[in-house]
Amino acid sequence: MKTKTDYSKVGPGIDGAAAPGRKTGPRRWLWPVAGLATLAVLILVVAVACGGSDSGESGSKTEAIKTAHGPSALVDGVPRGYTHDKAGARTAAVNFEQAMGHARSGRLDASALREHAVGENPSPALQSVLDNATDRVEHEDTVFNGVPLVATVTNFTPEAATVSIWTEGIAQTRTGGPDSPMGVSTSYSTTTVTLAWEGEDWKATDWAFEPGPKPEDARFPEDGPLSQPGGQGLYVFYRD
User: Fold this and answer.
1) Quick one: pLDDT at residue 50?
2) Which residue of 74, 134, 181, 187 has the fewest C-beta atoms within 10 A of its own C-beta?
3) Any bridge partners for residue 160, and if so which?
């Protein structure tokens, strides 16, 4: 009668015995030691790459982050540091729109956004949006996230850029009283952000907003931003 194998014992071979042909002895400890050494090196590399650094600005802490076209740092929660090219401008515009949405929701200080991401001479439209976002209070029962779908650089020079961002807005809020279920709604809009290259970075100088178009629209205006090729990748900054 065949004896059943007991698999409850853990070991390099069946029933805790060494597998046939496998040598036992001190050499078996080399792999765990080498693995621990490799893990220690990886931890050190990650710590160096992700470690924070002082920006030198009063009351501001900069945390280093790594993306292809920026941002390269966060200052007071505001993303900064973009490459001086179309991709950097496109990424800066997308992240500025994201940060503006957080400011309007009370999740980001609008004054910090104004200080670190806005140019010296903002347009009246941009100034008005910033003023409306100042001193907002976050409401836990209401969540709004703008998800950029297509970002197109419609004009670009080394000194200035204009970026059109087609966005899907997703809102979540209670349908009634405090104990009512959460409801979800979606909307679509187009935001145009004008940027200037100031202080070795892209800064927002103008802002325009209009609703639509909806995805079911069969055609877009031939001279509209969506009729032009958009960016192949969006490096989006999300802030908890």
Assistant:
1) 41
2) 181
3) 196
